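User: Okay, second chain of the day. Same drill as before: sequence in, structure tokens out.
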Amino acid sequence: MTALFLRDLKLSIRAGGGALIGVLFFLTVVAVIPFGVGPDLKLLSRIGPAIVWIGALLAALLGLDRLFQAERDDGSLDLMLTRETPLVLTVLVKCCAHWTATSLPLVIASPLLGLFMNMDETAIGATALTLLVGSPAITFIGAVGAAVAVALPRGGLLVSILVLPLTIPVLIFGVSATYAAVEDPVPFLPPFLILTALTLFFAAIGPAAAALALRNASD
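Assistant: Same drill. Structure tokens below.
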């Protein structure tokens, strides 16, 4: 499993620019917002957490179609299905490697982009924390979409269409928890715990559903 994790980590970084492309796209999405809404610093500060979350969500969707692409291209997908190691565990390790290579850099870059949006220290810290907790759920959801579209030659757009509606609850509670940390009357813990529960829920069902979809695609 360690070898598989390191292999997938290298592939995720190399394929299509990996983390660099995701961070650049993240930067682009957040950077163009001030040009659209104007130079109102108070408005930017107010909508900043939502914009950073939306940018991170869209950037995380970029490489999901490549989650099983290498195995499909070199024919090792069939070997994955016949190994003694449970396919669910293999998918889980691949998801962890993909998140480390693509989504973790977005979490690291989010404080810098929070400064672009005139966010204060509390909002920046809360945004980074909620992204750290909530972004794995996006990867686990994306694994299901990637497994469904693995047999298609150009399934990238289909993966995004399938995954995006399912990630809306993660986005809602991630942004809600961030705003709750900034606004004193609103408790931070309830939406943050729901966000954590969503990640744990998708960590449990995402790899299982992706493994089932991979088996069906091979039939």
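The chain has a mean pLDDT of 84.

User: Thanks, on to the next one.
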